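Instructor's aside before we start: the two examples that follow are unrelated to each other. I chose them only because their records fit on one page, so don't look for a connection. First example below.
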Amino acid sequence: MTMFSSRNWREYPQRYRLEASKFKKSGKTYFPPRTIDPETGDAEFETVKLPDTGKIVTYTVIRIAPDQWTDEAPYALAVVELTDGTRLMGQITDCDPEKVKIGMEVRVEFRRIQSEGHHGVISYGYKFVPKWY
């Protein structure tokens, strides 16, 4: 999957600054941000910055990767619950995938995700790194 430049540009705030929507009525936080709370229909929200630490809730190890990530395989993808309760999915990096465990504490780091071709736009975003790293 290639991320086109226009989509990359639109997603800068949420991916680069971990911005989410927190709704006034329910108090729920959604990432990626939403303009309407899917449970209550509430459209009143504030933009919040998510915390940069959390714990792994579940994970999987990718051993046969898509073409653009074959040089990274095997690697772990995880659902992480941040300290505020918001859940994100992302790659666990700087760690042997066989050492990833449920409950492992991680921190969010800004990293290169992919690029569009050999001389294309480089896309950055977040990945998770074990706190002990």
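Example two begins here.
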Amino acid sequence: MEYIKLEYSGAVATLTINRPKALNALNSAVLSELSAAIDEVSASSARCLIVRGEGTKAFVAGADIAEMSNMTSEQALEFGRLGTAVFKKLERMAIPTIAAVCGYALGGGCELAMACDIRLVSDTAAFAQPETGLGIIPGFGGTQRLPLLVGVSRAKEILFTGRRVKAEEALSIGLCSGVYTVDELFPAAQAMAEKIASFPPNAMRATKLAANQAFAANVDAGISAENRIFAACFDGEEQKQCMDAFLNKKK
């Protein structure tokens, strides 16, 4: 695989999004490889999975705006469905998953982290759903998972404003479970994963399956609606103007 690295240490698998020049941004190729990697881990003897981004600047800086900027609504619907299918597959893995978030987790990166069971972050981490500024909405489940994690009112404020939530605030509102220095983060994630992997696997799988029932049906219905609304954003000029302005500012 070109954009995904998989490593195994005992019963712990580590999946790394490896596109550092693009701050690990998610395009269709990355999502397809991510799906295949999840299948590989699921078929292995791993008992816990760590998800991380290459480098320390970004976990995942978002979906690839250069790819999205000229999409039709039909293409956007397929892109949104691809991302949500991959993240749902990650969320429903039988084994527990830990997102080790170092640096930016923006847009699709925030959504990827939220699809994991546990989020551990560096003190440099920053979460955001900045899609409204691009003329769209979150397309990979963000409108559904964020309210479940931080509450409806706070989630709407974060979604409406697109502001960045830094590490300590993320901890205080329940968006993550622990804050570490950059040097401490990945060893801490590995230690937690090893502890989880040491417990009886059938009990761990059953616990995750039962816990996921608390929200599974509502999330499925909400994500289906999110896919349609996300795609509709690509019908007018607003999305194209906003994304063009973003891309031109980066040049």
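The beta strands are 4-9, 12-17, 48-53, 58-60, 97-101, 104-106, 118-122, 126-128, 165-166, 178-180.
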